[in-house]
């Protein structure tokens, strides 16, 4: 099944190439390249900016493990360099001691003696000469090895300094890129807020409008209720509090109509 699909795809590509060559002739490759470039540009233009920012942050995060791996390598190099320094120091000390022995043998041969005593052993002049030649050869070999070790140590130290400098540059570039991505993210959010018109806070404006309308309706209903209560109060008769004195009322009426001073009349039993 897969082989059939592969064959079909190959045939379609070959057929498309043949048709393009027939239609456009020698310029078919130019048309194909321009079409492919247009498709790539269109696809890239349609990628959201937020996705590109996320991709940039992912790339920066992917650099961190590589930097940590290089830092571990640098630490390992530092340990090896310290060990190499110790080796060079020991070799230099041993070479100095051997140089003292060679010089002592050389001083012994400068005399005219035929027999020499070293410790409890005696050596002839010929034996001393052979011993000096052997030790001097070993000394020269050790001296060459020490020079090679020093050269290698110097190279490794220079390489370590260069690696530390490179790591520091990478760290600074990473920090600068992180700051740029953060700034672009903030700028993108500001653009989003300006385009949506709602600011940073995302609140449903429709619900706020409904709440405002409901509050207005409630306020109107309360005003109507207050007016109704005021109207009812106007048409309600007050309950009389003062009681009328019948005797005083009759006296006032008689006095008014008779024009004489009214006689005080007591209250009717």
Can you put this structure into words, describing what you see?
With 269 residues, this protein is an all-alpha fold. Helix content is 81%, strand content 3%. It has a two-stranded antiparallel ribbon. The longest helix is centred in the middle third of the chain and has 72 residues, at 125-196. The chain is rod-shaped. The model has no long low-confidence stretch (mean pLDDT 76).
| Adjacency order of strands in the biggest sheet | 1-2
Strand content bin: under 5%
Helix content: over 70%
Based on secondary structure, the structural category is mainly alpha
Radius of gyration: 57 Å
Cα separation of the termini:
129 Å
Count of extended strands:
2
Approximate shape: rod-shaped
Tell me about the biggest sheet?
Answer: 2 strands, antiparallel
Q: Count every helix, treating DSSP H or I runs of 4 or more residues as helices.
A: 6
Pattern of helices and strands: HHHEEHHH
Low-confidence parts, pLDDT < 50 over ≥5 residues? none
Mean pLDDT: 76
Summarize the structure.
By secondary structure, this protein is mainly alpha-helical.
Give the key terms.
mainly alpha; 2 strands; 81% helix; 3% strand
Provide the fold topology.
Blueprint lengths: L1 H23 L3 H18 L3 H61 L5 E4 L2 E4 H72 L8 H30 L11 H13 L11
Antiparallel strand pairs: 1-2
Helix pairs in contact: 1-2, 3-4
């Amino acid at each position: 099944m897969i082989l059939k699909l592969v064959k079909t795809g190959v045939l379609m590509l070959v057929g498309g190439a043949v048709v393009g060559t027939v239609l456009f002739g020698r310029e078919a490759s130019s048309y194909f390249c321009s079409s492919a470039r247009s498709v790539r540009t269109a696809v890239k233009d349609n990628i959201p900016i937020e996705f590109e920012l996320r991709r940039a942050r992912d790339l920066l995060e992917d650099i961190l493990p590589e930097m940590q791996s290089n830092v571990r390598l640098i630490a390992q190099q530092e340990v090896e360099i310290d060990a190499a320094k110790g080796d060079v120091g020991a070799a230099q000390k041993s070479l100095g001691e051997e140089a003292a022995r060679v010089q002592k043998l050389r001083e012994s041969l400068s005399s005219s003696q035929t027999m020499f005593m070293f410790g409890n052993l005696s050596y002839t002049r010929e034996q001393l000469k052979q011993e000096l030649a052997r030790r001097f050869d070993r000394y020269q070999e050790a001296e060459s090895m020490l020079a090679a070790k020093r050269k290698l140590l110097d190279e490794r130290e220079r390489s370590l300094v260069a690696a530390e400098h490179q790591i520091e540059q990478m760290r600074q570039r990473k920090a600068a890129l992180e700051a740029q991505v953060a700034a672009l993210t903030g700028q993108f959010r500001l653009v989003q807020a300006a385009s949506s018109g709602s600011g940073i806070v995302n609140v449903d404006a429709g619900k706020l409008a409904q709440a405002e309308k409901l509050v207005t309706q409630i306020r109107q209903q309360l005003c109507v209720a207050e007016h109704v209560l005021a109207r009812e109060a106007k048409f309600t008769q007050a309950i009389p509090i003062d009681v009328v004195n019948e005797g005083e009322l009759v006296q006032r009426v008689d006095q008014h109509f008779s024009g004489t001073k009214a006689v005080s009349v007591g209250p009717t039993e």
